[in-house]
Amino acid sequence: MNVEIRKSQSCEFASALTQENMKEYYERRNIQWNTEQFTKSWKEFENFDIYFESKLVGVLRFSYGNSNCYIRDFQIESNVQGKGIGKYCLNYTTRFAKDRGDNCIKLRVFSENPAVRL
After folding, report:
1. For 32, which DSSP code?
2. What is the per-residue pLDDT for 110?
3. Quick check: pTM over 0.85?
């Protein structure tokens, strides 16, 4: 499998993908997308792009605190989901957090999101 994770260069791509992937959850809870808040978080978090077969297909975003690595956002385009990219990214996250010296990796998701199994 040809997956690469690189420091992110595009807040716009991440914002658009996150809006698309989270649309159903936001609508269900009557949450409005806040571009200003996303842009602010972009500057505060560590952001990575996910490439599959040399094509930008996702974003992985982290924050840190109290010896924890927080997965703040983990989005993959729907047309390439189910190909093992997510598993690769979770393995990457585990190595990344361990190398940083973090004790725990945390992820919050909506209760009906399939990512809850992670």
Report:
1. P
2. 85
3. yes
As a whole number of Å, the CA-based R_g of the chain is: 14
**For residue 84, how many other CB atoms are within 10 A of its CB?**
12
Task: Check: CB of residue 69 under 8 Å from CB of residue 106.
Answer: yes
The answer to whether 99 touches 46, Cβ cutoff 8 Å, is no
By the 8 A CB rule, do 59 and 38 touch?
no
Q: Tokens 């729907």 appear where?
A: 78
Structure tokens of 17?
A: 């993908």
Cβ 53 vs Cβ 87: under 8 Å: no
Within a 10 A sphere around the Cβ of 91, how many other Cβ atoms?
Answer: 11
Burial class (CB in 10 A: 0-12, 13-18, 19+), 81: middle
Confidence (pLDDT) at 97: 97
Both structure tokens of 50: 């996910």
pLDDT > 80? residue 118: no
Any idea what the Cα angle at residue 63 is, between residues 107 and 5, rounded to 5°?
A: 85
Distance separating alpha carbons of residues 58 and 49, to the nearest angstrom: 6
